User: What shape does this take?
Amino acid sequence: MKAYFQLQFRLFNRAIQSIGMPPLLGYVALLAVFIGSSLLLFSRTELAPYLYILLALSLIGRLGEQRRNDFLQMHFPAPQYRLIRLAENGIVALPFVLFLAYKGLFLFALALPGLSALLATLKTGMRWQLSFPTPFSRRPFEFPTGFRGNILWIGAAYFLTLMAIRYDNFNLGAFSLAAIFFTCLSFYTRPEREYYVWIFHLGPRRFLWEKMKTAWLFSALLSLPVWLALAFAFPENIYILAALLVLGWFYLVAIIVAKYSAYPGEMNISHAILLVLSIYLPPVLFVLIPVYYQKSVRNLRQTLYDPN
Assistant: This one.
């Protein structure tokens, strides 16, 4: 088990070094982003502790992905597997617990470790015995699988929308709309098999355009109930809601071209840092999108026929 964590530590350090940054500086940058984001959230809404817990559990839940845990169970006996799950969840939860304690929210700080330990016994993204229909079936690959694997988080965003309307809290409503788009962004974090690209029989530019149109359409289907409810409840903020919708579509374009700029490999930490930076400075998107788009076109030429 010790060797497993040593390997994960080395892999993480190499990911930081791959962008030309010393590991120590990378950890400092990640800590600064975490603290800055936490302070920003707590300065915007009184419901921040609940949203903070939800965010932490969302990140922890990613560690319970079915295929990942099947792999761990193949290589470790049951006692070590459980310890690994508990340790990994605890590592992710620790910075959230420390910040909650810093804010004096000791009840939340005590609850989070218990919830993370509970999630260590579960596997998310489990295979459904009964497949339910979705409006995304005709356009694989991201939205059908992403929707089924994140339906609970999408439901939670809808619930937050209802709470925002009930308590007349527009900031919470805006957060719920952003949460829908961030969930959609998570659908694009992993590359599909090359076969699922090759079958399109399109050139790289046309392929990327079709991916963008699909992302815009399906994200609109998921976000439309939230957007309409907030527009009806807070008509004075209609322009802010429209801006959030357009900005969400820009981020979808950014993650699509970032994904295929690394294809067939996975996005690395440099992609993550630049995408996070664009959240704080949206104008960065106007640089990232063209750069990643050109890289995507070059990468996709290895898989797709390009008449140009």
Observations:
- Residues 20-128 form one domain.
- Residues 204-233 form the longest helix (30 residues).
- The chain has two domains: 20-128, 143-308.
- Residues 41 and 48 are 6 Å apart (CA to CA).
